[in-house]
Write a structure and sequence with these properties.
It contains eight helices and nine strands. It has about 240 residues and is of the alpha/beta class. A nine-stranded mixed β-sheet has the order 7-5-6-4-1-2-3-8-9, with helices on both faces. Strand 8 and strand 9 form a beta hairpin. The chain is globular, with a radius of gyration of 17 Å.
Length: about 240
C-alpha cells in the first residue's frame, strides 16, 4: 500500500495523427481537469511541421501555462521508433504513475482518478487497459515510474509490435504483476477500420518480436537500453519554459 495518493502522467506521442488528437485531447483534458493537481498530460511531438503546437496554444493555452498539459519537441521533425518516443514522454513526466495514452484514446470521465485508485492498495502492478487483442488500447498500460525506470523503459531495439508485451514480461521478472482492465468506461478509443492484412502483419511481427524478447530475457537482460538510458535526453524543448533540457 502506498503512503500517499499517487500522481499520474498521461504520456502521449504525436507522429502525425492530427485528425485523431484533435478529437481526443480536448475531451481528455476536460474529463480529468477536476484532478489536475495530481494529473498531467505530457505530449511529445515528433512532427512539429504539422503545427500541432499552434493549435494547442490556440485551444489549450491555460492548460499549457498551468503545467496541466506539457508540450515537448526537438523543434524539428524526427524519425524515431515509437518506443523511443514513448520513452521520451515518460522521461519528462513528473508524476508517480506513467500511463501511455495514444492519440486516438479517450481516458474516460475521471479516467486518471480511476487508474490512480487501482494503485493505492496494489502499487506493484502494471495495469493494461484493453478491449480485445487488436484494439489500440492494448498499448494503454500504466506502471509506477520507479518500476518503469528499474527495467529501463520500453526496449528501443525492437522494430516490431512486441515492445509492450516485452516491457510487461520484464516488469513481471522484476516482481510487478500484470493486471488487465476490462472496464469499458475507461478503455474507449476512436473507431479504426479493420485491416485483415495489417492484422496478419501484426501477428507475424509480434511472434518475431516475442521470440527475440524471450531470448534476451533468457540471457538475463531484464534492463533495457544500456542500463536504463531510455528516451531522447538532449535537445528537447519544453514550450512553457522555452528551455532545452
Amino acid at each position: 500500500m502506498l503512503e500517499k495518493i499517487p500522481t499520474l502522467s498521461f504520456c502521449i506521442v504525436y507522429q502525425g495523427q492530427m485528425e485523431q488528437i484533435r478529437q481526443t485531447l480536448g475531451k481528455n483534458l476536460t474529463d480529468n481537469e477536476r484532478h489536475k493537481d495530481i494529473i498531467e498530460f505530457v505530449l511529445f511531438d515528433c512532427k512539429p511541421s504539422d503545427h500541432l503546437l499552434e493549435w494547442i496554444l490556440a485551444d489549450f493555452y491555460e492548460a499549457v501555462n498551468s503545467g496541466y498539459l506539457c508540450y515537448y519537441s526537438c523543434g524539428f521533425d524526427i524519425d524515431c521508433n515509437l518506443q523511443t518516443a514513448k520513452n521520451t514522454a515518460c522521461f519528462y513526466s513528473k508524476n508517480d504513475i506513467v500511463t501511455y495514452c495514444g492519440c486516438g484514446d479517450f481516458t474516460g470521465y475521471l479516467g486518471g482518478k480511476y487508474i490512480i485508485s487501482r494503485f493505492i492498495n496494489f502499487p506493484r502492478i502494471v495495469l493494461q487497459q484493453l478491449k480485445n487483442k487488436y484494439d489500440i488500447g492494448t498499448e494503454r498500460i500504466s506502471v509506477l515510474r520507479q518500476y518503469f525506470d528499474i527495467v529501463g523503459g520500453y526496449d528501443e531495439e525492437f522494430i516490431s509490435d512486441c515492445h509492450v508485451e516485452d516491457l510487461m514480461i520484464r516488469l513481471n521478472f522484476a516482481g510487478i504483476h500484470h493486471v488487465q482492465c476490462g472496464e469499458q468506461n475507461y478503455n474507449q478509443s476512436l473507431a479504426i477500420e479493420k485491416d485483415t492484412f495489417a492484422e496478419i502483419q501484426y501477428i507475424d511481427s509480434y511472434q518475431e518480436g516475442s521470440k527475440r524478447s524471450q531470448e534476451k530475457i533468457f540471457e538475463g537482460r531484464i534492463v533495457a537500453n544500456n542500463g536504463g538510458l531510455y528516451g531522447l535526453r538532449s535537445g528537447i524543448l519544453n514550450h512553457k519554459s522555452e528551455n532545452h533540457h
